[in-house]
Amino acid sequence: MTPTDAKRPLQLNDLGQLRHFLSLDGLPRELLTEILDTADSFLEVGNRSVKKVPLLRGKTVCNVFFENSTRTRTTFELAAKRLSADVITLNVSTSSTSKGETLTDTLRNLEAMAADMFVVRHAESGAAHFIAEHVCPDVAVINGGDGRHAHPTQGMLDMLTIRRHKGSFENLSVAIVGDILHSRVARSNMLALKTLGCPDIRVIGPKTLLPIGLEQYGVRLFNDMSEGLRDVDVVIMLRLQRERMQGGMLPSESEFYRLYGLSTQRLAQARPDAIVMHPGPINRGVEIESAVADGTQSVILNQVTYGIAIRMAVLSMAMSGQTAQRQLDSEEQK
Ligand code: CP
Question: Which of 17, 29, 105, 243 shows its CA 20 to 30 Å from the CA of 273?
């Protein structure tokens, strides 16, 4: 992992507005704050009896998920519907991709159906970026998680959760705990926290699950859980991503839980008003005790609710960034 992806030109239009959303790498603080502010304004839509605004009326959003998902897929679908878009969710396991069709050919066919946006999840790092480089210039691409690289909407919904519970990022201590090596969420969170001005980002895990070069993100590394959790305001727990592990990186799950599981006793090391977060899916008794996951400090289900608002913000901002770029291009051609 390196913090220099240089994705910025592809993600932004000539006015510096969002047109794709692929990674948080290189995005300025003002843009991340605009996403949070826009999402805040959309949260109220979820409390209305008619949960709809007309911002994407007449637009078509295609959810193309090449990897399993519950939260991201369904909240993107809900977000697009609340913006009044037409939504297609492609089940890749039963689509022509499983009959040998290439990714590019699948996308060309979806473009031919006049899709305006693709939300993509893929097991390969860089897949969303590849798609953004190869789609028609008018189509916006949103990364719903690519390999161990990035999960930018998860990163932003985590930031919205922290801001709504803690007010701001200044003076906060945030601990990210567990399988950092295989986690796209950890990477997106470290980038977002740094950009938004969080002064104390701690990363806690066994040496085998901490990637080399993490210090470049401006984080502090801890192998001892109790030491790392001392006086933190926010604890972000991560799942062991067995599907991305090769070889024996851990003695056993019970040993991992003994050393790095978030129990009530361990949580007592953090500030009394610390919040507990987890991107899901949670594994009870592996990285988190049930009493903590369901306890008063847990905001895990709030994260899911905030995810709809963040995804509404990103979809609407990327669509308006694409429209603005189209206008700039047509004025240039006159
Ligand atoms: N947090 C997250 O990405 O969950 P899903 O895999 O269910 O989408």
Answer: 29
